[in-house]
Amino acid sequence: MPTQPITLQPNPNAAAGTSTAALRELLERRRAGYSLEAPFYLSDEIFQADMALIFGRHWIFVAVAPQVPEAGDYITVDVGHDSILIVRDDDMQVQAFHNVCRHRGSRLCEAHQGSLGNIVCPYHQWTYDLTGQLIHADHMGESFDRRSHGLKPVHLRNLEGLLFICLADEPPQDFDQLAERMRPYMAPHRLNECKVAAQVDLIEQSNWKLTMENNRECYHCVGNHPELTISLFEHGFGYQPGPQNAEGLARFEGIVRESHARWEAMGLPSAEIETLDSMVSGFRTQRLPLDRAGQSQTMSTEVACKKLLADFPDKALGGLSFWTQPNSWHHFMSDHVVSFSVIPVGPGRTLVRTTWCVHRDAVEGVDYTVENLTRVWNATNDQDRRLVEESQIGVASRAYEPGPYSPYTEGLVEKFCAWYVDRLRAGVSTLR
């Protein structure tokens, strides 16, 4: 029988004081190792809880620092009802503010990306500098205190070129631990010294959790991702061990050990770190070899950009993968970095933003072409869009019930769902 919808307060800003008994019941009866019940993917009320308690309280990945390369460069990011302005100030530091004028609430910057000298409200021309301080406001009287009307800041962390924000008053403190462990892995790729070669936005008609679950496994890769699997070792997808694949698995494990030893000797950390369901700011990383030429996630598996990100002694550095809860994944190679940000738009509508970065001195048409750089992931993203949209249709059926995850190929899906359920429980426990 179909699961009955639950009733929650639809406004995330008024979540406190809401009756959450039905949501608590759904969370408590979640069966480990199985997909979530239908309301988690369909309910507008649970979507609002996700925005308030997951995206409103955790560190979320929203951009790369090369999107704002010069002083005055800015981008805007919408997270639910909140518009966030990210700008590089005159001291070349990246700042984040609520994109809201302190006068009467007008949105300050409408465009997704641009450049400015000061931040000027289009309504009444209140003017802020790039640190968010109010520097000009006509007709407000001699007693008006500009110092108490600066832009409201948003917590921002620049992790080796990846920009994370947190909308909570008190963000999770364990991001410092994440950053300390990840910097040695990411720093050699010098993302802060890159430029954006391409960015593509894709809207998926599905719930954001289906997008994330799909990313966390490659059970579906064979038969669905012909472009991506050119560069991936088949036995890296996850297999149920057995006599028929013992030799292949052993060979792949040997390639991983040999590659890790070679890369570690170059000063490139490669070993797996796994905290996806054991930290509030859950993450995972590992550098894995790529198949064939082993250089990059391209159709030829050779580098897409002739100018490498750093003075690497070898082009074949495999792919350093970095996953974060709740909304991102990234692949660092010798020649480029590709990052993915997942932002919920509605219960059945999700933005997937993909950004490709190359060395800032690389010349398009000489060192790389955008088509070659983006071909694999443009194709893969569109294939994944189709898969998750079909899943969204399926979970809405009265025949849907939570199905079991493969312990061999879907372990990271279970970790995502376990993290999500745990964090939603923690958030619900703070509501009256």
Automatic annotation (TrEMBL):
Its cofactor is Fe cation. Residues 59-165 form the Rieske domain. It comes from the Bacteria. One of its GO terms (molecular function) is iron ion binding. The keyword Iron applies. InterPro entries: Rieske_2Fe-2S (IPR017941), Rieske_2Fe-2S_sf (IPR036922), Ring_hydroxy_dOase_asu_C_dom (IPR015879), Rng_hydr_dOase-A (IPR001663). Keywords: 2Fe-2S, Iron, Iron-sulfur, Metal-binding, Oxidoreductase. Belongs to the bacterial ring-hydroxylating dioxygenase alpha subunit family. This is Rieske 2Fe-2S family protein. It comes from Sphaerotilus hippei.
